Request: fold
Amino acid sequence: MKKILLTLLFILFGTTTYADGHCSKPSGSINILANDFPALRTFVETAKGCKGSADFKVTHSSEHNKIAVPALTANPSEFSARIAANSSIVPLMNQDLIRPMDDLVKKYGKGIQDSQLITIDGKVMAVAFMANTQHLYYREDVLKELGIPVPKTYEEVVAASEKIRASGKMQHPYAAAYKAGWNLAEEFVNMFIGHGGEFFKAGTAEPNINNAKGVATLNMLKKLASLSNPDYLTHDSEAIKVEWESGKVALMTLWASRSGTLLDDEGDAKITAATKLTGPATVGGGNIPAATLWWDGFTLAKNRSDSDAEASFIALAHAASNKKMVADAADQAVWLVEGFVPGPKSIGVIEAVKMGAKPYPMLPQMGLMHGALGSEIVEFLQGKESAEQALKDVEAAYISKAKEQGFL
Amino acid sequence: MEYGLDKRSNALKTFNTTFIIIWLLIACFPFIWTFWGSFKVRADFFSRADWWYAISAFNTLIETGGQFTSNAYSEAWTEGEFWKASRNTIIVTVFVVTISLFLGTLGAYALSRSTERYAFWILIAALIFRAMPHITLVSGYLFPFFELQIWGILPTTIVVLVAINQPFTLWLLYSFFKTVPKELDESALIDGCSYFQAFRYIIMPVMWPGVITAGLFSLMLAYNDFTVTALLLNQENHTMVPKIQSYLGTNQHEGNLMWAVSAVVSATAPLFMLVMFFQRQVISGLTTGAVKG
Amino acid sequence: MPNKTFFWFFLPTGLAMILFIGLPIISTGIQSFYAQHDQVVKEVKKCDPFGCTVSIVVDQEATSVIRDERPLGKFNGLGTYVDRNHLAIEQISEFWDETDTFGDFIDQVTNLPFYKALLFTLTYCLFVTPNVLLLGFIIALSLNAISRKIRGPLIFGTILPMIVTPLVGSLVLFWMIDAEGIIGANLQLIMEDPYLSLKSSRTLTWITIIIYGVWHHSPFAFVVFYAALQTVPQEPVEAAIIDGASRYQRIRHIVLPHIYPVVTFVALISLMDNFRVFEPIIGFSAEGSAQSLSWLIYDNLVNEEVILFGSAAATSMMTIIGIAILLAPVLIRTWKEFRTAR
Reply:
């Protein structure tokens, strides 16, 4: 663990030592399925620079999750490669739709770091190139004025927010993406992991959240919610970002990947200048942060010819080891590629890694749990049921889904 | 309904005018607001600080130096490749409307002229078909379409949109055909026309306005559909609505909201012209053929 | 029309509908009776940029053997229909035994996802449908009395709520009704309540979505009613005026009976559309306070990494059945009409 951590930090802070990623002109046909946001567009564009004589196509779609499984199930599959994250690789693994690429890595993956490789049972299943996490943002001016130190734990976040509220400066000083559904469930996952919780009984798919840790997690979420804008159940990352820009929030938990526009020169200059980033907070006396680490990486479709897989790998590996790309697009993401020089926007991710944050659980049944959490804990936050009842509901909803999917 | 004998009192007239003005305000205000806001920067239009910014253009002045900016438009159309999406939308709507109407008029004519019991059951089946949520239908299509390698191309989407819209088109046109007296085509049949000739040369000219109405509803569906187009098209063929969705960003990553806003305004402009153009025909069309349930 | 002619006329549209709607409905129906095979899992070592852990994956070798034998999955009968996330038969009988008062029982039942969604869906239908009919009719009457010259643009303005892409239409509205947005902030002023927020409580969210529904659907009713009004014959109306009938009496006894079939048509279509309410929930980010049946389907198909096709299929089938029940009175009436027409 320690060794990997050191390598990662080395990559993150590493300096350019040798020339640009090479490209061994592939042929065949390449078709990529990816989510739709600027960093991925940059990545795919870079890969296109190494398409050789191959036919190169890409589909960036917000509906990529829904398309991926049917697309890769067909034989031959529509796409030769799919850009996935730690959660979206799971359905592909469950259905056995992606191929191991050890041989390709050996043959063409010179510029790729060992730490970029996602291995499962010893086989390389994906190559990561970006990292992300949720961490704390704070308003330096507000904290300084009230003499509050930068919070390290969620208990301190609560205390600081209460103090800010008491001072009359802000009515709702805390913000996080608590929108019912995926976002809220993600906050629960973070907080539960921060409390040292395990979602499932070891080695099985039996749920394991209706316990003291689960209750503590919910209570902390509720406390934080009471310090947020009363509309918190409708606020996604976009909404809280705008709230931050309007100067009504002093402490916030938000994705590292969204720091870009908070620190650019659009909007109120005073707020931008006072916006500071720090690592994720811990909770309940735990020593790992209440946050999950995420990666984005590429995978290769199984139901596609070897030559297309090879062509896709060559092009994508070119991008995943491209120093020029990470230098030019340093603002767009926290790249895991060698040669990336982290700027102030990457502080959150680096801190999270240093503190030993855990990755989002890459488990076959985790999506079902995430879905159950998103809708069943809402009523607790609204004050309509007890924490125990809410957790019981989550487990019941999860069990029904897991039974239908054959996990239980 | 301008009755010669009917003298409206002034009070009623005033009340009526006031009601219409209030309704139009409610109906149009969000769109006028969007139109106005599309010429501002994001920090003004999507402001949580003060909604007045959208009017005073506080940040637009700082960022662009003027009260209004058309940056969002020029960027969305060029950088955002909205032109490509509009081209695809035009192709999709033109084909969907034409094919829908062709299939729909034939089918509805047959239904309206049949006295068999099965005609009724077909109408009921069409109604049940319409009840199926689109999202389930489309999810069902994905596997076979990928297997047949017809996913992502425009013709597939066009056929799916036509099929999904058939029940509504059938019902609407069926009610229209019911209003055309049977004697009309029966006399043509006696004169030696085939059913198709009677349909083509006797009934269709009378039905033209009704067809326009059905066409307008299919156009609206093809134009505004998200579920089908977002899931069945590849990036090259994305139409306007999935494109707009892609400007909105994702959970973890920032989108370009002002592009979406300007794109929506751009997408509504041609509809305005279309509706204005078709209006006379739509209304006169509905005039001759009352819709019967 | 002879059967053979009918067949050729109806073939293209019939084929399209059977292929793209009929068959999928049947396959969805079949799928709803199946569940996935038992997944064989094994523990393996997983490494990513942030470290290695030992955890479970699906054992492909073992699973593929089972999968190849029966590709449809495990036959589950009505299992998916009655599980906790759908009809929850078991849970309900449990609640019946456990709870003391009827109110408690209802509370418990509406805490289950399916009934929660059904409650909202029905409430929405109940409030939106009649109001759409009423508002559409009033606007049609009212516009009909306005001078023909300016009617054109007015009609366009009236149908705007229907034609603007709902995706972004509701996004813009979502910002407008925010506590800091133009509508939200002015509502606070009018109501003299600085903490009023349309998004924070369940009741207000429901009211907002219902108002949006009326706003969005009224133009459809308007278009059809307006057209129907043009066909009202003049003679009886004029006769009624001479007889001294009031305006209300004329509408009640002449106009309404004449356009009655159209009212049925609009009621049918809007009832169906309202039962499938979905877009405003996403647009207004109202998942926390309002869930509909269509939203449940969406949630099963889209929101989760693992696609729950069986669940979605079961909910879809129940949606169809629900609509059929709601429409039954209208269908029976149509049948009677059809028989007399023959």
The mean pLDDT of chain C is 87. The two ends of chain C are 13 Å apart (CA to CA).
